[in-house]
Amino acid sequence: MPDPSLLKIFPTPADAPIVIEHIAEEFTSLCPKTGHPDFGVITLRYQPSAQPPIGTQPQTQAAGYAPWVPSPPPLPAAPTGLTGCVELKSLKLYYQSFRDEGIFYEAVTHRIKADLVAAMHPVWLQVITDWRGRGGIRSTIRADYGDIPEHFRGQ
Fold first, then answer.
1. What is the pLDDT of residues 100-145, one digit of tens each?
2. Which of 102, 110, 121, 155 is most deeply packed, by most CB within 10 A?
3. Which residues belong to the active site?
């Protein structure tokens, strides 16, 4: 079952706006109808928030977490006040939590977007999933959050 508590966030390492893009080429889940594996490439593109939300106070640092992240973390589905960037090992483990899940392409894409937005509170975020063909049909699913810069729209 997809597990957003695996996502670990660290503070954005720059004061100026930056765009981060991660491409995971070995994503797998299961077709909910047939149980056969689905193989896809996930592109995550986002602009992290530069600062923690107003009103959050620095707290004791838990191993692997930003100093202002409450300890112990698990991340609830609702916004938590965390901002920043997703740590890559945690992102990989989160993606792997879909491996045995029977879930449609569209639901995978939406779920990844929703979980990452709840965990990171980015300025904007784009998730693009490209699924390998089965039966001669390839699929690309896109889910956006926030005001995506024009040069990234439709990519």
1. 999 999 999 999 999 999 999 999 999 999 999 778 899 999 999 9
2. 121
3. 31, 38
